[in-house]
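Students often ask what a 'structure token' actually looks like in practice. Rather than answer in the abstract, let us consider DUF547 domain-containing protein, a protein of 264 residues. Its sequence is given first.
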Amino acid sequence: MFTFVNRLLILTAVVFSCSLFAAPKADLWDYWQPFADAKAVDIDHQPYQEFLDSYLVVQGQHTLVKYNQVTTQDKQSLKTYLSKMSEVDPHQLTREQQYAFWVNLYNAFTIDIILDNYPTKSITKIGGLFSFGPWDKEITTINGQALTLNDIEHRILRPIWQDPRTHYAVNCASLGCPNLQQRAFTEANTEQLLQQAMQSYISSDKGVLLSNGQLTLSSIYDWFEVDFGGSDGVIDHLAEIRPEVANFSGKVKFDYDWSLNEVK
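Now compare that with the structural description of the same chain:
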């Protein structure tokens, strides 16, 4: 018998599946804007770098994580790193330090969440029956302010820096995502890593695939089109690396693979 409850569950499933296509807008959280004029504090990202050195593997166009091989000791080391990062006052960091701080915090917490819920087929399966992923779950408190992954990406990184390359820096633990960088971000290497990540992703099939008269782009360029200056801005951005995209006049398709970025 098809009950009211059945109908409600189906309707709810439809609503949440549609949320796949509704990316959060950049919504500035003013509190996090201040930064130090000069460097006065050093941030030690070495524990996170050691994790990357131990558990990242490049396979084809993907950089994968050996989640199933992470030791209990290394899981704890990652949590200790995150705990120490959460004690930092970002207002004491320069603008360059802050960017690296937030990107590393986002990526390290994403890894930590996967490890706490491993095995899982996709990060989208984490967060409860009616949640599409863990992005709105509180992950830490800094300066007395509770933070989620969405806060870091959409209320801090995107609106404060207004650099579309941020989408190549933060990693959502999925195959369709720009790869997790093999080096922790620092104030010294951020520009290099952003350019490297951008070029790598746009050059890959998961970023841009032109085949048999069909152009398939990562859904990132649909969800966050506004960050690239609209649809024309997306094409101009991609054409910097893939000039053939500028002359394409056919149908454009968007795609994204939410499968976990794991070494199997």
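One point worth highlighting: The first strand starts at residue 56 and ends at 59. Ask yourself how you might have guessed this from the sequence alone, and why that guess would often be unreliable.
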